[in-house]
Design goal:
Layout: H1 8-19, H2 43-46, E1 52-59, E2 63-64, H3 68-81, E3 89-92, E4 99-100, E5 105-112, H4 113-144, E6 149-151, H5 161-170, E7 184-186, H6 196-206, E8 212-216, H7 219-228, E9 232-236, H8 240-257, E10 262-266, H9 274-278, E11 284-286, E12 298-301
């Protein structure tokens, strides 16, 4: 249901970080080495080599579950790299994107105890972070009541942007641009070196295939962006009354020109303000709070 990005390198890097080895040890096709599990200097000497682990991942608070395929990939990658004859099995008990209550078992884990305990923290960390993002996003989407789109930003933990934005989608949100390469966004620092009209003209000439968004701090800038032909105008740090007035002015300008423009609100928006924003006529909001939120707590327990 949800398109997952390629997580091969991300999972390898996460496991390598915990075991203090090169991510190359987890590259596809690398000969498995059971001694890899010896890198866990607690589990290796304490747990018997034939001991098995059968347990469940349990949600310790209400949340939207996100990251089940990533957690499964952690155990699969570790099993392959360690050359285990019988890989650790990760069985989801709920669907990705499900809302669960505290105490709900979301997955069952079965396999060699040494491998399960070695991969436990990495798998849970992915679940905790991604479920936190999905849960927060779902709260914002509910507050917007489908009147406006809720978008993320580029404010993500470096290296985890694709997964962070995946979690936003799982929570019902909409992805803004992924990076510097896939959409033009003219911000205040750009406008210190070129007028809005000139900035849009240059960007359109260089990248006619891309959407162009312009950040506006004032009504004059917003109208100027519409006149310059911006596809999206980002109305930054405006109160509700100002925002409603600027939205109306920009709509009138676009109608007079026979064009269509999307209007976006951003700038330190709290969740409590979202319902009021929907009444301003804005099309969408963007908030770093979606991806810079707290994690959700999960535990891996044996019965």
């Amino acid at each position: 249901m949800f398109e997952l990005p390629d997580i091969t390198a991300i999972v390898a890097a996460a496991l390598a970080e915990d075991l203090g080895i090169s991510p190359d040890s987890f590259a596809p096709g690398v000969l498995g080495d059971v001694e890899l599990l010896e890198r866990d200097v607690t589990t290796a000497p304490v747990i018997g080599t034939d001991a098995r682990f059968v347990g469940r991942v349990v949600a310790r608070e209400e949340c939207v579950v996100c990251g089940l395929p990533v957690a499964a990939a952690v155990f699969e990658t570790l099993s392959d790299a360690a050359g285990l004859f019988e890989p650790v099995d990760f069985f989801p008990l709920v669907a990705e994107g499900s809302r669960v209550t505290p105490g709900t078992a979301i997955a069952e884990v079965d396999g060699l105890a040494a491998a399960v305990l070695t991969g436990e923290r990495t798998a849970l960390d992915f679940l905790m972070v991604l479920s936190g993002i999905a849960t927060t996003t779902a709260e914002w989407v509910a507050a917007a009541s489908s009147a406006i789109d809720v978008c993320d930003t580029r404010k993500t933990l470096p290296g985890l942007r694709e997964l962070s934005k995946y979690a936003v989608r799982v929570g019902g949100g909409t992805n803004h641009r992924f990076g510097l390469h896939d959409m033009v966004l003219v911000k205040d620092n750009h406008l210190r070196h070129a007028s809005i009209t000139e900035a849009v003209r240059r960007a359109r000439s260089a990248h006619p295939e891309l959407v162009i968004e312009v950040e506006a701090d004032t009504a004059e800038q917003a109208v100027g962006a519409v006149r310059a032909g911006a596809d999206i105008v980002l109305l930054d740090n405006m109160d509700d009354a100002t925002l409603a007035a600027v939205v109306a002015t920009c709509r009138a300008e676009a109608d007079a020109r026979g064009t269509v423009v999307l209007l976006e609100a951003s700038g330190g928006i709290p969740l409590s303000r979202v319902p009021a924003l929907a009444a301003t006529g804005i099309d969408r909001i963007s908030a770093s709070a979606l991806t810079l939120t707290r994690s959700v707590d999960f535990g891996l327990d044996e019965p």
